[in-house]
C-alpha cells in the first residue's frame, strides 16, 4: 500500500521495487502503488543527451502510455495445476482518458509530429525500454506517472538493476532526472534548472565517469 506521506504530499520519487516470483500470491508493489493512487498515465521523454555516444544523435520522442490496465491488472490465477492464466483488462474509460491526456500534452507542448500505437500496457514497457536504449541505456531517462491527484517520478525503464548490484557501476542520472521532473512538477523551476545543467556538464566532462 502507498505510504500515507505520498497521499499527504501528492508526490513521490522512487526506484523500481523488485517483485519476487516465488508463487502466485506475489504482488508487485510497483503496480499496487500505481493502481491504488490511480496513476493511469506514464510519460517518458526520450531525448538525446550531449556527450552520450549513441547510434542516433537527434532522438526526441515522448512516449505516453496506459499505466494500470492490460497485463498489469494483476489478475493471474492457476486455473488447473500447472496452467496459469493472466487476464488482460482494458476499459473504455481508461483508454479514453489516456488518449485525451496524450493529445492535450501534444497541444500544450507544441508536438506536431506523432504516431499512435494502440497496444496494451506490457508492450508499452517494451517500446519504452527500446527507446531508452536508443539514447544510451537504462540509466539515463526518467519516467513520470500521473493521475488526477498524485504524481510519482522514477527511472524510465523501471529496471531494478539487480544484475549490477555491488559492482559500483550504476548510473545515477535516471534518478537525478526523476528528481528534476519532480521539482518542475512542484513549481521549483530554478532548482530543477540548476541540477539539470550540472548533470549535463558532468556528462559532457569525460573525466567524470562511473567505473
From TrEMBL:
Keywords: Tricarboxylic acid cycle. The keyword Transport does not apply. GO terms for cellular component: mitochondrion. Belongs to the isocitrate and isopropylmalate dehydrogenases family. It comes from Eumeta variegata (Bagworm moth). Residues 2-208 form the Isopropylmalate dehydrogenase-like domain. Pfam families: Iso_dh. This is Isocitrate dehydrogenase subunit gamma, mitochondrial. PANTHER family: DECARBOXYLATING DEHYDROGENASES-ISOCITRATE, ISOPROPYLMALATE, TARTRATE (PTHR11835), ISOCITRATE DEHYDROGENASE [NAD] SUBUNIT, MITOCHONDRIAL (PTHR11835:SF60). The gene is IDH3G. Transmembrane segments: none annotated. SUPFAM superfamilies: Isocitrate/Isopropylmalate dehydrogenase-like. One of its GO terms (biological process) is tricarboxylic acid cycle.
Amino acid at each position: 500500500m502507498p505510504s500515507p506521506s505520498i497521499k499527504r504530499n501528492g508526490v513521490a520519487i522512487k526506484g523500481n521495487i523488485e517483485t519476487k516470483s516465488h508463487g502466485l500470491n506475489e504482488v508487485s508493489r510497483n503496480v499496487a502503488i500505481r493502481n491504488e493512487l490511480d496513476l493511469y498515465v506514464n510519460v517518458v521523454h526520450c531525448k538525446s543527451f550531449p556527450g552520450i555516444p549513441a547510434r542516433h544523435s537527434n532522438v526526441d520522442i515522448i512516449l505516453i502510455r496506459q499505466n494500470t490496465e492490460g497485463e498489469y491488472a494483476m489478475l493471474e490465477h492457476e486455473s488447473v495445476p500447472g496452467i496459469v492464466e493472466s487476464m488482460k483488462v482494458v476499459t473504455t474509460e481508461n483508454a479514453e482518458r489516456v488518449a485525451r491526456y496524450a493529445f492535450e500534452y501534444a497541444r500544450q507542448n507544441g508536438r506536431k509530429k506523432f504516431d499512435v500505437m494502440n497496444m496494451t500496457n506490457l508492450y508499452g514497457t517494451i517500446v519504452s525500454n527500446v527507446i531508452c536504449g536508443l539514447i544510451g541505456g537504462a540509466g539515463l531517462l526518467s519516467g513520470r506517472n500521473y493521475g488526477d491527484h498524485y504524481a510519482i517520478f522514477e527511472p524510465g525503464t523501471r529496471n531494478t538493476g539487480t544484475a549490477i548490484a555491488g559492482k559500483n557501476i550504476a548510473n545515477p542520472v535516471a534518478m537525478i532526472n526523476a528528481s528534476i521532473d519532480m521539482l518542475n512538477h512542484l513549481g521549483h523551476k530554478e532548482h530543477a534548472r540548476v541540477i539539470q545543467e550540472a548533470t549535463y556538464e558532468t556528462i559532457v566532462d569525460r573525466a567524470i565517469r562511473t567505473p
